[in-house]
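Deliverable D5.2: sample structural annotation.
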Amino acid sequence: RFILKTSPDESGSYGKFPLNTKSLPTVPDPNTIKISAAEFKQFQSWIYAAAGINLADHKQALVMGRLAQRLRHYHLADYGEYFRLLTSGKFPTEAQIAVDLLTTNETHFFREPKHFDFLRQHIIPAHPSGKPLRVWSAASSSGEEPYSIAMTLAAALGERQWEVLASDLSSRILARARTGHYAMARAESIPREYLTAYCLKGIDEYEGTFLVDPKIRQRVQFMQINLNSALPQLGEFDVIFLRNVMIYFDLPTKQQVVARLLKYLRPNGYLLIGHSESLYDVSNEVKPVMPAVYRKV
């Protein structure tokens, strides 16, 4: 252990660190700190304003579990102190860190496979040849969905013009998605022919993992986008996947988010949502084609 020696100030301390370590404040273990009802309501309001996420009242344990590490990082005694730090503006990156931690990212390759069957059997064959097919995975999480889309397009269209935009609120999860590197257990839901054609098996220190082939990764553009705010200029899409994210929104937020996205969906384009979700009372700009598949009118 090395100690940087300087001249002590009048208080008998070197710099900002007291020589008597017994004078350091004792901070409780963050794992033992409980969040109060008032503190939880502050985080509820904050994440709703930041991301449109409606945290249910029974999510206190989730908030504590996700944010305890930030209390530990800053040596804070309670969640009220962390909230004041978060909203003080003194730490500009802390808001993104908190959003990343409070955002649930659960997904897997070819989740809800009927959507990929519909893409392969109906959307791709009907698409005009010579025109790029553009698909947006609007809640891409750790990359399994956009890579599943890309594999489906690559198998059907080969080198013809197609592209996939993958967006998410979480910068942390996007960084992970860009690598295209996954545990081998995640490959179980990938069709065998796609796994062989578009994935590389890890060896040596990478044994037990696989990598999405660069020829697939280079066709997927990842971008951080908050669906709860004004969207950047993205161009027009033929298909938008908005799956398993609206379950975290209340009705007004659903209406606003869908309206924003539909501006980027071409006429007769398809909007795909999660099978546990509904567009009832959300939008009259689309008509159902099959469960969880809508077409813009």
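Annotation notes: The chain has a mean pLDDT of 88. DSSP finds ten helices and ten strands in the chain.
The annotation will be released with the project's public dataset once the embargo ends.
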